[in-house]
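Model it.
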Amino acid sequence: MRHAPAVLLAASLLAPAAARADGPSPPPAQSAQARPPALEVTIDRSKVDLKGRQIEVKLSRAASKVRVKVLGQSGAVLAEEEKPFGGAAAGSPLAVTWSPSSDEPVARIEVYGYDTEGYWAGIAIIPWNVSIPHEEVQFETNSDVIRAPEVPKLEASLQKISEVVAKTSELGKITLFIVGHTDTVGSAEHNLALSRKRARAIAAWFKGRGVKLPIAFEGLGESAPLVKTADQVDEPRNRRVDYILSVEPPRLPSGDASWKAL
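Modeled.
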């Protein structure tokens, strides 16, 4: 199994409201009007770089510091880093890096942001996704019909998907994402539509075989080739479909691409 680069992530709030970092909550006599708005911590998911071990955070108020805790798939703490920001203005991009104790894949990153008044809030992201290796289904020209001889390939892929899910269900709600690609033969518009139809056909096949996971699909046509070629080049390696298990939708190219629920 190879781990795909993580592009799109799952987040859950660690603190429903800002808390004081230096003591208990204000006494009941303090009026609600005197309290500042809840501190918000957000993460730019496009700036999460697992390979470069860096994350970009923003606070809704002036930032004192940011603390990051990185956990591996075994539950072990891979890194804990704290970086001061000296009152950086609200909304400023705050980059934090970490140095892991091992090469274990990252399963969870906890981020805590502290404002200059001593309040804090936290958010957790789950940068986990897995691309399922598989044998490509071969479609007839301009067709999205799955032929009987191709079914064993999908059955083998289904077995691999089930094995991964059984081992990682504790990570949260996992979704199966299916994205189709084509080579450059034909017009870009035709290839985009065809890749979507084929991705949907495979998604429907998995659903029809009793897959309980949520399933989403999209087609990218010839816009994301595995092998770059000139136009109108018949390249079998570009006629492919990706099967990705992830807690949150993988990032798609900008434009009209969007995940579609089956």
